[in-house]
Design a protein that fits this description.
The chain is built from four helices and five strands. By secondary structure, the protein is an alpha+beta fold.
Amino acid sequence: MNGLAALFRRFFLVELFAGMWITIKNHFRPHITIEYPREKPDLAPRFRGVPRLRRDPETAEELCIGCLLCEQICPDDCISIVVDKRPGGKGKMAKSFIIDYERCCFCGLCVDPCPTTPITAIYMSHDYELSDYSRQEFITQRAALVDGHPIKRYEK
């Protein structure tokens, strides 16, 4: 009997029609895939993209105080900061703030030790399109990192 059932399945192509039934059934259901270049995905609020610097929303000056904590905690050593004294006197400021996105693992550890309150000076943005043709484009200076300025890669 087992051989007769196998012959019946093979002769009448039961597996083929079962597969075609699944295909036809799912063809008329709504699509669940995102057509990426035309449609952008909805990102979770805690999505970790590219680290960027933030400006004070009221005064529009940089929040970075040059404490070097983000540079020290970075496991990939992709953050490089040069600190200088503030021109007005008290405190320090970041003279140069460079992030190499090619080395960055987007872990978000640089955000946690930032002592600026109530808003941290560095944050993980929702930028996720990280492709380019040259390696030099992944090293980003401070001017390109700050809110309101696009990242250098996207200015093409």
